[in-house]
Design goal:
Layout: H1 4-16, E1 22-23, E2 30-32, E3 35-37, H2 39-50, H3 58-65, H4 75-88, H5 95-101, H6 104-115
Antiparallel strand pairs: 1-3, 2-3
Helix pairs in contact: 1-2, 1-6, 3-4, 4-6
Amino acid sequence: MLNRVIIEDCIRCLTLNPSVAVRDGRAEELTVRERVYAPEIQVLATALAQYGYDDPNYMENMERLRHTPIEQLSLNECMTWLTYIFRGEETVAGHIQFYVENGILLQLLKRLNELLD
C-alpha cells in the first residue's frame, strides 16, 4: 500500500542526497528498466503500480498539468505526475533520474505528503 512511510522514506532519500536515488549497479539494489535506483524509489514505483494508484489517462492529463504549479496540485493530479514519471521509465531509460535531478520528484512527494495530512 502507498502510505506516508513510503513517501517519507523517498523524501528523506532525495533530501539527504539526491544522487543516492540513482546508483551505479550494486547487487542489493533493484532496477527499473536499465537504471539502478535506490530501494526507496523502487518501493514507491512498486506501490504505485501494485495498488492501482496510477492514472490510466496520464498522457492526456499531463498536457493540462504540465504548467500547473506543484503546490496547487490535488491528490489525483500528483498521482498523474507520478504515473507519468514512473511509466516513462518503461520507454525511456533515465526518465525517473531526470525528475530526480531537476527536483520535481521531491517537490511532488512533499506535496503528496501535505495532501495526506
